[in-house]
Design goal:
Length: 226
């Protein structure tokens, strides 16, 4: 019931039909486990029914707050942002990428004129290519002094890699930056990678808005339900 309640709220805030909102939220949770935010599955299983409901409400409101903050500070709406996120959130979550950063990268590509499906597929492909070092995608960045993996060997979040990439390529020519984007993202998606590289400041700004929980979600919920 608590998850259903949050899905209905999500639909109202994001101006989506209830069924669509529920599907989006379920898909996002399946990929990221955001409703368990701050707890493990074992801890959640040991909770009482009321404690589980409270956990789901608190975690969901925090996530809706982040998504709404990105929507409020960008040209992308929540429906489009979550469509993109659901194409790559599973891969991003494995790297420790935050919901805020996922939403920020999605909104940035939408603002740059990318279709939702193409933006999502591009981000999924970038994570996959870096993870497998496909055609030297990770090696290309490492040659620039940019670590693609953490100390434990797992892939770093793309948002962190973008920040380092922005610093390390600031003096490179447009042709060289394009070559790097092609190596990392492949010929089909290098334009989207290039847009992320060129708009890293925008990704950082939107992530900050989301992480700062600037959107008054409780007031919005009250207004919509009233």
């Amino acid at each position: 019931p608590a998850a259903t309640e949050m899905s209905l709220a999500f639909g109202m805030i994001g101006e989506m039909e209830s069924e669509q909102a529920m599907q989006r939220l379920i898909n996002l949770h399946q990929q990221t486990g955001f409703m368990l935010r701050g707890t493990t599955q074992a801890q959640f299983d040991a909770m009482s029914a009321q404690e589980k409901a409270n956990q789901i409400r608190v975690a969901s409101i925090a996530t809706l707050n982040e998504l709404n903050a990105v929507e409020d500070h960008s040209a992308a709406n929540m429906e489009r942002i979550t469509f993109v996120m659901n194409q790559f959130a599973s891969q991003a979550h494995l790297t420790g990428e935050s919901i805020a950063s996922m939403a920020a990268m999605s909104a940035t590509l939408i603002e740059a004129g990318e279709e939702q499906g193409k933006a999502g597929r591009a981000l999924r492909m970038i994570y996959a290519r870096l993870g497998a070092d496909t055609n030297g995608a990770a090696s290309e960045l490492e040659a620039l002094g940019i670590a693609t993996r953490k100390a434990d060997g797992t892939l770093r979040p793309l948002s962190d890699i973008l920040v380092d990439l922005d610093k390390n390529t600031v003096n490179l020519s447009k042709a060289e930056r394009q070559r790097i984007a092609q190596t990392v993202a492949g010929n089909n998606h290098y334009v989207r990678m290039l847009k992320l590289m060129e708009n890293t400041d925008r990704v950082i700004a939107l992530t900050g808005e989301a992480a700062g929980n600037t959107a008054p979600i409780v007031d919005i919920l009250n207004d919509r339900f009233d």
